[in-house]
Design brief:
Blueprint: E1 2-6, H1 10-21, E2 25-29, E3 41-43, E4 50-52, E5 58-59, H2 63-71, E6 78-80, E7 85-90, E8 93-98, H3 106-114, H4 119-134, H5 143-149, H6 154-169, H7 178-189, E9 198-201, H8 205-218, E10 222-224, E11 227-235, E12 238-246, H9 251-255, E13 261-266, E14 269-272, H10 279-282, E15 301-311, E16 320-323, E17 330-333, H11 334-337, E18 345-351, H12 362-376, E19 385-398, H13 402-407, E20 418-420, H14 433-449
Parallel strand pairs: 1-2, 1-14, 2-10, 7-16, 14-20
Antiparallel strand pairs: 3-4, 5-9, 6-9, 7-8, 11-12, 12-13, 15-18, 15-19, 16-17, 17-18
Helix pairs in contact: 1-8, 1-14, 2-14, 4-6
Amino acid sequence: MKVAVIGAGFAGMAAAIRLQERRHDVVLLERRGVLGGRATSYRDAGSGEDVDNGTHLMIGAYAATLDLISRAGASDLLVVQDRLHIDYVDDQGFSALDCPPLLAPFHLAGGLLRVRMPWRVKLQALRFALGVQLGRRPDGITLAEWFERTGQGKDARRLLWDPLATAILNETPERAAAVLFYNVYREAFLTSHAASRLVFLRRGYGVLHERLARYFEGRGGTVRRRALADAIDVADGRAIGVRYVQRGMTRDEIRAGKKATAERLAADAVVAAVPWKALPALVPAPHRSWMPFSGLSGLRGSPIVSIEMWLDKIVVDRQMVGLRDSEIEWVFDKGRLYGRSGPPQHLAFIVSAAYRSAPRPNAELVKAAETALRRYFPAMAGATLTRSLVIREPDATFASDPEAEKLRPENVTPIQGLYLAGDWTNTGLPATIEGAVRSGLAAAEAVEAQR
């Protein structure tokens, strides 16, 4: 069977690889020259290092993602913690959630007993764990409402839950759907201690996607970069191909000013792994009023802001630190993750659900990151900022509120032969890499089931 996959992010890549592994003829269309969609990277001209379009984290519970990476022979790019360890800093100094390698969920209880927090907060956190394990699914309510129902006080939210939940959901607890945090919590903390471990990359996500693409092409798949999908062809209620504009793919073609050409790819099935906003325009006008296409206008985007900084000395002495009571929630030592131990230090700061931060000027955001360093890290007193970048992703994820859960579509559509993949589909997870990969695999299974 010939399959066209539109979009080379994690969802499209997972679908394309699974179908190619099962000996279908797969062509992957990507509108940009780089692969990875909303989880990619580029080589910074000033420093020569990889810069992600937002720091993306994985955890040990990402079984589908880690399996995909393993099958592609790219596990050497992973940095996996021995056990869950998250450092935090506030005006009182450092503390850590350091979970011993015990059976779940006792590993989490052990970590909570060690972390510097008031005992009432620890007891509330343990009560929450019991509520997740034994209580009912919190369908239809916000995470803030669920925190209130499970007795999570102001300090528990400030010191533990709100920073963690906002990072996972890219939405504030006041807006986020509780069921998504419930599902992530169960997979990460109630299955095994290994599931909660953090997983980093030794290189940028663009490098990982190039490795995935190499595996895909090595099995006979085709990647067409700078191929801008224009329309999905539908005849007699069935998807029969994709029309796209092919621009110059290689550097030589781009420099030579090769003209874009209109192309058509005939296919027995089409997997659309594009952002939710882009999908309706690809289907023929008569079908746009059909569900799920008409419902996608109800999904909103949630922004992420990343601030990349290079310092002339080492200021942050660990891979990742949560910054409590700070506008900027997390800082990552990218240089350390990439295998460097000395200066210059390459730091990445993340602001999730960045509705207020995204409109601010770059200089203000860099200043806020610098202020956080001077507040929490004494070594910053003698350091000089040598370079900075600000990266905004206005629609980094869909806004994961309870209403969005009613609109997230399944993989199968009313158009025969057209399937959907993306972290915004009905995966049961928030907009995560694992959700994207699972959606791609589900779309591939649907293609095979209905051929």
